[in-house]
Structure formats: structure tokens, C-alpha cells
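re: that complex we talked abt at group meeting.

here r the seqs, copy pasted straight from the sheet so there may be weird spacing, ignore it
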Amino acid sequence: MTRTSGDFRGRRALALGAGTATVALLLAACGGGDGDDGASPTAGGTAAESSIDCSVFDQFGDLQGKTVTVYTSIVDPESQSHIDSYKPFEACTGVTISYEGSREFEAQLPVRIQAGNPPDIAIVNQPGSLRTLVNRFDAVKPVPDAVKQEVEENFSQSWIDYGTVDGTLYAAPYDANVKSFVWYSPKAFKDAGYEVPKTWDELMTLTAKIQSDTGNPPWCAGVESGDATGWPGTDWVEDMVLRFAGIDVYNKWVDHEIPFNDPQIIDAWDKAGDILKSDKYVNAGLGDVSSIATTAWSSAGLGITQGTCWLHRAANFYAAQWPEGTDISEDGDVWAFYLPAQIEDEHPVLVGGPFIAALADRPEVQAFQTYLASTDWSNEKAKVSASGWVSANKHLDPSLLNNDFDRYVYGVLTDPKTVAGYDASDQMPSEVGAGTFWTGIVNWLTGQSTQQVADTIEASWPASS
Amino acid sequence: MTTTPQASLPAQTLTLNQRAAKVRRRLSNPWASGIAIVLAILWTLPTLGLLITSFRTQTDINASGWWTVFGKIFTGDANFTLENYDTALHGSTTNLAQFFVNSIVITLPSVVIPISIALLAAYAFAWIDFPGRDWLFVAVFALQVVPIQVTMIPLLRAYVSWGIGGSFWSVWLSHSIFALPLAIFLLHNFMKDIPRSLVEAATMDGAGHVKIFFRVVFPLMVPAIAAFGIFQFLWVWNDLLVALVFVGGRPDVAPLTVRVAELSGTRGGQWHLLSAGAFISMVVPLIVFVSLQRYFVRGLLAGSVKG
Amino acid sequence: MNWLTGGGEPAQKFLLMFLAIALFILIVGLILFLVDRPQNPKKWFLALGFLGLPVLGLGFGLVYPAIETIRNSFLNRDATKFVGLDNYVTAFTTPEFLVVLRNTAIWVLVVPIVATFIGLVYAVVVDRSRFEKFAKALIFLPMAISMVGASIIWGFVYAFRPVQGNIQQIGLLNQVLVWLGIPPQQFLINQPWNTFFLIVILIWIQTGFAMTLLSAAIKAIPDDIVEAARLDGLYGIGMFRYITVPSIRPTLVVVLTTIAITTLKVFDIVRTTTGGQFGTSVVANEFYRQSFVTLNTGLGAALAVLLFVLVIPIIWYNVRQLRLAEEVR
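got the structure back, here u go
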């Protein structure tokens, strides 16, 4: 099989990685070649056989020849590193992992469950949908003891809580992303003599300074994301609630112990408005405030490399959006700083990440679950991943991560000072978290006041969920 | 001023045909040509934009409009890339050819089966006078409005219990069923326009309905079948939903659309690849359209009335 | 017999495909053979032979799910409790719902009429012209693109960039405005016109459908009728008005109906371009959201039933046309 230039980013990054990754790449390339059954990895992925301890899986008996199906929302090209990271497990046990990724995962999973055709493992993207799967469909099996041990050893209590429904641990965390970053151009900052701000006030001072120096808005933003339009804006608001109302209020807000339109929330939300609703500060190179609503989140920040924008708040995974050839480094074309809090010593961080839900409890499924919760897997995944992948696993070896930026993100994520708040909209009932909250952001950006929007969202909160 | 004579028609019709064409030609210009050209340009422009876009880099797409390339070609600054196509064609772990094969294997039966069944049904509705015919026809026609989404769970449940979940069989069955209301409705419209005298003449000769269907009606339906066949082909070829629901979990059975839909990446950030993907999957339907056009023959009905 | 359920080498897949088609032909052939056996078959027997398969398929694939949907619309969100008309009340009392209903009405009126009209005019003007095939392929082109693809194309057409420094427009429509000296517009935000800009996308797609079917119908108009009209002195618009349109009237009704029903069901365009924001949502989009995003089965089903109800006027109109045609015949 010829893969002519093969020069798209994920693959090249992979090839530049550790030696095992190159072997994995070759294996993958050969595996794709025969055109037969491309999703199930080729048997005999012996490349990394020695890298993990196979004896862990003895307790599950002889699994040779069994198959475990995995269903996720992760598609090409990101999916390849996931498939590769399962290989050591396949080599140990002889189990075949059949991977299927689909962008329609969210809508299709309930259909399959209700039709009696569920996958063995589903990588669910939100604690909210995990709760729905447990309560509504009674589809998820509680984790076996082996998984529970791994999770308790590797993850902090807050991550364990997100995978827990009504006191039972149903799902181990899979990987993680960190949303509290501001992307900027270190080169441009250096040329203009700007410093990375350490507190919220410094950030606002810098914003005003850039505005007066250039006469143009410094911030660029975009919340358009097709049928999910609005979500990048909810992240902004959540970051502000974490910073100005604190984690306790944040958690109460998520659980609806305080109303959605509580005054503390309104105040925090207005802090986002200081930037996002100011025609002086947005929307660099893209229009006025309302243009945020129609600008694709994926291209909103690209102005930073083109010199039309200075600051762009986005998650660590925005790293994948920069055009090929962009130098992502602390003194390069782009880099991100931590979105500062009120004082320097506080480190609230907005995080997100999927969970591993098992919909079957056959031994081979439980064995695979155990593998995915282990540090072995995290390390293996780090080795084969392209830029932009981190895990919340405390025992992950950071040196295995793809690049400096990922190590920086991992550092923020596992810093003891860090107070992690899981993405609120992903925890709220979907009517709000994937409905009126998104719509609210759009209405807010196109004219409605914070109070109006929050009142509408509060009114839409389902009576009992 | 010439028109291509159609060999299949009797001589008398031919001359009529030619004369009529001449008259029309003389009278319907230049306004008609003007309208045709304006519409054609308006309809093609967005697609042209996409075509050019599919050869541009992500940065260029976001920095300037696609029409600027025309100016840049003259100044020599135009910057084209095949990378979008390269990624769309080779970026997957699975060979793209396999998706093409699957698409074809899914599409052909899903076109042939519903059209054949619908032809028979349309014939019955048009020419067999059985009790409750009108009511049944209206019911079938009204079924067009049922959104496919409401059928997913019941159908998939049935397929899984029959052991054909995730196979080609479930896709063929689903597409065939979903196509029936519209197919019957459309073909019935053409079917009932067949002159009564033709069918009655055949009945006089002692032909049964099966014979009438094959000898008299079917040949006259060729243009309509070609027209509907094109659309059924398109719908099946472009379908993503049915494929996702019914072959989900079986990547080796998935059609091209499943692959193209994935091109934009996990979070939809790589949408510029979709422009290349759209063109790759457009090629086959266009070939089908152009090649089936020759069945849009003029005057089949008219000719046979006289004959 | 693993290959019987799909997968395997391409050759096996094609073999399976031909096997399926052969099996189908065998079944239909057998049915027709049986129907043709008796000398003087009863009407119902004939009807059964010709209609048995489709009625069976439709009953299983569409009628049964439709009935289940109607039942679900009276149940709560996870279909465990009877709630009477609550879902309908919820649907009708949501503040944005009137906007959704208004939009749906606009869509279902504008798309069929405009698409059919343009398709008809185009079919007539290119008919018998030298470039007919090529000209038709151009209008047909959008049909070959998926709805999502079309939405992306038009996203480009409507794209907006501000007047700021040396930033260029990347959307064609705004560039045209700028060339004309008019400031660029946010086409997808400004209500209520944004709905019309979305409607343009579906018209762009459906015109090819109308054009193809109408062209087939125009070609079926007997030439002697055309010729006779010429002798009576009918040309151009007169010919169009008094000969072409009346002759293809049944097909016009069919095309209008089909596009109207398609329009009722289309949600992909709204979903990909605006996600139903900025007051552009339609019933089909809300149905999809409730059924598959918020998983409110009851409310989703109620919205689907609303779609069934909205189609009743269209059915009624068709039944009338059918009756009229019957009387003529």
C-alpha cells in the first residue's frame, strides 16, 4: 500500500515520536493495506509486547480469540493512536479490540442500546450522559474490583466522583482536556514588549493596553460549532464562575442546589461580558460582538498567526487547529498561558474528558476495562499519541508525552494547587447543558442581557431528571 | 438549425418533431437563452467556489475569498495544494476503495428492488380496480411524511433479533422500504397517464394484467423509471443516517458517506477536508445522471398512441 | 456462512449483491407467475399479488413505527408513564415555538413553489436546445451533494468579515455587497431574513429534482398538440401558459407535493448552518433535538406527530386533484 506523501500532521508527529511509535505506524500502514477488516487491528501487534505486565489479566481466565467492541466519538485521524494504544493488551490476552468511531456517537448510542445492540465499551463524553445511561437505560455495569483499585490509585477524588452515579463507581476516566488557557503569540508579545499576565486584573490591564496601542480589539472568539453552537461560550462562563464564585458555588450551581440565575453566577458571567460584550475588546479581525456567534470555534483563533488577533481563550486541544508548520513553543509562533484567577496563588481549572462505560460484563470486557484504567495504558497512549493528548492519571510518566505543550498542560492538570471543576454544561441535564445554555450564549452575544439569559435558562431546567 | 433526429421514432413523428423544434427555436430566444444562462451560472457558482476551495490551504481559505485566485493566477501568486484530497483519499486506516465497493454494493439493490416493487404497486393502483384502492393509495402516499428517525429503534431491534443486524441485508431492506411511498406515488403519476385505449386494446386481445404490465406499460415507463432511478440512486448513495444506524459497528460494511462524514475530525475542526470529500463522493452520482439522461426520450407515449 | 451477512473480499460482496437481486427477482417472478395462473382472477387476488410485498414492507417498516410514535407522544420523557396531552401542551407553550411553527410554514410554502417554478422554467428553456444535457447537468449538480455538504458550501457564500484594516471578505455574497459599496451583512443572524437565506439552500438543491421530473413530463407532451397550438398562433409565453403547464399539471402537483413533504422533514440544513439558533429552527429540527439530544422521547414523538398533522392539508389537496383527474378520465 502506498501512502503517497503521508504528510498530514498526526502521522508525521507519530513518526517523529518514540521508536515503538514508528513500529506501530508501520504495522498500521501494513494493516490498512490488505483492505480487509481495517478497524480490527492486525493480530500479532508484538511491537510493544514487553512493555506491560501481562500477568494482571490472568485473573480473567483464558481470553484467547474473544472480541471486545469499543464505540466512541473519536474518528480519524485521532482514532489511530487509540487503536494503537490497545495493542499491548491484545498481545497479552489474544483479545481482538474492534474499534468504531462516529461523529454521531451521541445520538446513536441510545438507539443501539434500546434496539438491543449495544457495544461492549462506550467512551462517553460527559458525566451527564453517563448518568442518563445508568438511570434511564440501566445499561452500564458497575466497575469490577480490579478497575476500582486502579482508579483509586491513579486518579484524584474529584475525577472519581465524576464517574460515580449515586455512590457507585460506573466509569473510569479515559483521557482529559484542560480548557482554561489563553492562546497568544510569544513572538508578537516579545516584539511589542507585553508580559504574560498573572492575575485577572493584569489580564484586563493588558487587554486595555493592547487596545490602545493598536486601536483594534485584542481578543478573538467564536462559538459556532454547527449543531453544538454555543459550547465554547459556556466554557468562558464556567471559567468565570470558577474564578469569581469559587468551586463550592460552582458545584452547587451544577447540581442545581442554587438556581442557575443566582446573583453570584450573574456577577461572574458579567466578568466574561467585560471582554466578550465589549466592542472595544472583541472581535479581532472578525467583526463586532455578534460575529462571535457565527464564527467557527475552530478558526476563530487563527488570527493570532496572521497578526490580526492577540488573545484567544481556548482549550488545550486547540493546538490541533494551528496550520501546519506553526511553531508551538514558549518562544515560538503560538503558545498558551493559564487563564489567570483573581490572585496568583489560586488555580481553578476547567477540565473535561470522557469516561469508560462498560455495557457488558464478560471477562474479556472487564479485563480490557482494567487495562484502560491502568497507568500502563496511559503511558502506552502517551507514547503513540500525536500532540494534544493528556490524561489525569497521577502516575503517568510525563516524559512520554508528545511535546512540551502537552507536558505543560499535564503539569497544570496535576498541580496540587489546581482546583479542577469539570465542565458544568457537560454535567447539567442535556435540556440545559446541550440546549438552553448553548442557545443562551448565542442570545447573550446577539443582544440579550445576562440576567435575561440566565432567567430563561433557569426556567428551562427540567423539573426532575 | 438542426435537431438530432431520434432513430427510434416513426418517420411521420420525426418530421413533426423537427418542425415543432424549428418553430420553438425561432420563437423562444434570446430571452430563453438569457434566463437559462443566468440560472445556470447562479446554480453553478457555489459549487465552483467549493471546487476551488478544495484545492486551497486552510490558511488561505480563512484569509481570502476563493475568487481571488483568478487574480493571483495572473500575477503568479496562486497557491494550490492537493493535500486536502490526499488526506481525504489516504488519511484513513481503511482503504478508500473498500468504501466505494460498499457504497456500490449497498446502492444497486436499494435502487432495483424498490423500483420494481413500486412499479407493480403503481400498476395496481392505476389499472386494477379493486375495492379500497383509493384509500390504500392515499395511505401509502401519506407515509412519505414518517421521518426515518422514528423507525430506527423498532427496525434495528427486528434486524438484531433476526440475526441480520449490521449486514448489507438490513440496509437493503431499510432503503427499499423507505423509498416505497415516494416511488409508488411518482410512478403512479406517470402510470395513470398512459392512454386507456392502449390498456383496453390489450385486454381485448385477452392479455392478463401481468402480460399487459410487461408488454404495454413497462416500455412506456422507461423515462419515468430513469428519472426516479437517478434520484433513488442519489438518495441511497448520499445517505448517512441509514448506514450509521443499520451497519453501525461493522466498518467493513460502511459506505463512503460514513468515511466522508468523519473527515471533519473528532471535533469538526477539519471541515476544510470536507470540500475534497464532497467532490470525491459526487463523482459517481454525476456519472449516473449523465449516462441515464439518454433514457429521457421524447414522445414515447405520443408515438405509441399513433402506432 | 459469515460472508452471507456481509464483509469479506470485494468479490464476495458483489456476489452477495447479485445473489440478493436474483433472490428478489425469483420471489417477484414466483408471485407474478401465481397471479397469472387463473383464467379470470378475482380483483382482490390480483391486488394481493401486485401489492402484497409493498404493503407488507410498509406495514412493518413505516406504519408500525408511526403508530408507536403516536403512542409515545402521550407518554413521558422515558416512555414509562401516561401523561395525556402534556407533551403537546409543552410543545405549544414553549416561547420560541410560535417562531418555529412560523418558520416551518415559510419553508413549506416557499421551497416547493420557488423550486418548482425555477425548475419548470429551466426545463422549458433548455428543452431541445443544443446544450440540453450539459445545461441540465449543471442544475442537477447540487442534488449530488449531501445536505451537509450543501450547507458548508453556502456557509462560504454567506461568510462575514468586518470592515477592519485590510481584512478581506471570504464570503461571495458579502464581497458582492462590498463591490457595490454596501456594508457587509451578517446573513445568518439578522432575523427574520436569515430563514430565507437558509431556504435558498434547499431551493438550490431541490430545483434539480423539479427540473428532472418536469423535463420528463414535458417530453411526454405529444408533438401534435404542440404543432396544433403553433398553427393556432401560440408562441413563447402563450405556449407555456396554455399548452405546457396544463399538459404537465399532474406532474406539477406531484413535484410540489414531494418537495413540500421533503421540506417538512429536512433538518440537516438548519442543524449544520445555525443549529436552530437566531430564530431559524423548524419543527423537524426540534423533533431531532428532543428525540436524540435531550432524549425526551415523549416530546420528540409529539413533534413528529405534529409533522404528520402538518402534512394533512397536502394530502387533502392531492386527493382532490386525484378525484379531478379521475373525472376527466
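couple things i noticed - Chain C touches chain B through 118 residues (CB under 8 Å). The domain at 73-328 of chain C is CATH 1.10.3720.10 (MetI-like fold).
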